[in-house]
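TA notes, week 10

Several of you asked for a full example with nothing omitted. So below is the full record: structure tokens for the whole chain, then the designed sequence directly under it. When grading your own attempts, check the secondary structure regions first.
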């Protein structure tokens, strides 16, 4: 019973976290709306691969060690901030080019925004694994919900799988909704707005990560 109560507590917490708009939502919606469907599913798979990895790291105590190490946490924070800011700036630049008289509306986006499933997977997994707040989140939450007597590694991975399942369900809804609006969003003006909003959100997360302590 204690284990079941812990699982339901965890489901409530990560369920609310999953549906809260944020970096993952921006990545999934933007990729599904403009990129190929396989690339969008790659982003979803990458994000959830990172979530599962953090759950395993936290269960093994690695996330707690990382969160306790100022130097390691700072390095990861800087790397994550640099990655997100670079991604966001590329989107903002693409929106600016599409809005200029010399820009081509159908020209491909630069860098990591092109490619298929594995390009999307890399983008999703890197955005997740380079986020030190995921380490802090799991290191703080898992010890509170893993019942006494249970194997920390096995139960922690089980809870991470629950988180991944919720994430896949919500991401599927986002992908399907974005794909249905694809014809509207791919219009030049709509695409520029989407790129600016997504680029601003991703850049904002990167700056916030950079200045946070």
């Amino acid at each position: 019973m204690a284990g079941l109560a812990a699982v339901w507590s965890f489901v409530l917490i990560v369920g609310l976290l999953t549906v809260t708009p944020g970096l993952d939502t921006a990545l999934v919606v933007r990729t599904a709306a403009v990129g190929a469907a396989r690339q969008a599913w790659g982003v979803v798979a990458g994000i959830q691969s990172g979530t599962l990895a953090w759950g395993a790291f936290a269960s093994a105590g690695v996330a707690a060690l990382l969160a306790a190490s100022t130097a390691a946490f700072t390095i990861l924070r800087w790397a994550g901030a640099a990655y997100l800011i670079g991604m966001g700036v590329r989107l903002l630049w693409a929106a600016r080019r599409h809005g200029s008289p010399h820009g081509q509306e159908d020209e491909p986006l630069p860098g990591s925004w092109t490619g298929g499933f594995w390009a999307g997977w890399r983008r999703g997994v890197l955005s997740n694994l380079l986020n030190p707040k995921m380490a802090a989140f799991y290191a703080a939450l898992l010890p509170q919900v893993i019942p006494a007597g249970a194997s920390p590694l096995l139960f922690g991975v089980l809870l991470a799988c629950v988180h991944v399942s919720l994430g896949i369900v919500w991401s599927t809804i986002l992908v399907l909704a974005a794909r249905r609006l694809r014809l509207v969003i791919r219009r030049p003006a709509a695409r520029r707005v989407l790129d600016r909003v997504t680029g601003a959100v991703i850049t904002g997360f990167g700056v916030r990560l950079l200045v946070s302590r």
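Residues 100-112 have pLDDT under 50 and may be disordered. Use that as a sanity check on your answer.
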